[in-house]
């Protein structure tokens, strides 16, 4: 039982990490797109 609880806590942390990585990826893609738009305007 205790092991299962620990496993759930770990998976919650993993979810948070994955969400954080995903958000960083989205931010990078947005910045890349913004950079392309600014470059095209020159």
Describe the structure.
- With 42 residues, the protein is mainly α.
- Helices cover 95% and strands 0% of the residues.
- It contains 1 helix and no strands.
- The protein has one helix spanning 2-41.
- The assigned structural class equals mainly alpha
Q: What order do the helices and strands follow? A: H
> Which bin fits the share of residues in helices?
over 70%
Q: What best-fitting shape do the alpha-carbon axes yield?
A: rod-shaped
Pick out its properties.
42 residues, mainly alpha
Compact description:
With 42 residues, the chain is mainly α. The protein is 95% helix and 0% strand.
Detail the topology: elements first, then pairings:
Blueprint: H1 2-41
């Amino acid at each position: 039982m205790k092991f299962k609880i620990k496993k759930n806590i770990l998976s919650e942390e993993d979810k948070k990490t994955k969400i954080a990585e995903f958000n960083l990826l989205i931010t990078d893609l947005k910045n890349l797109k913004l950079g392309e738009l600014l470059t095209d305007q020159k």
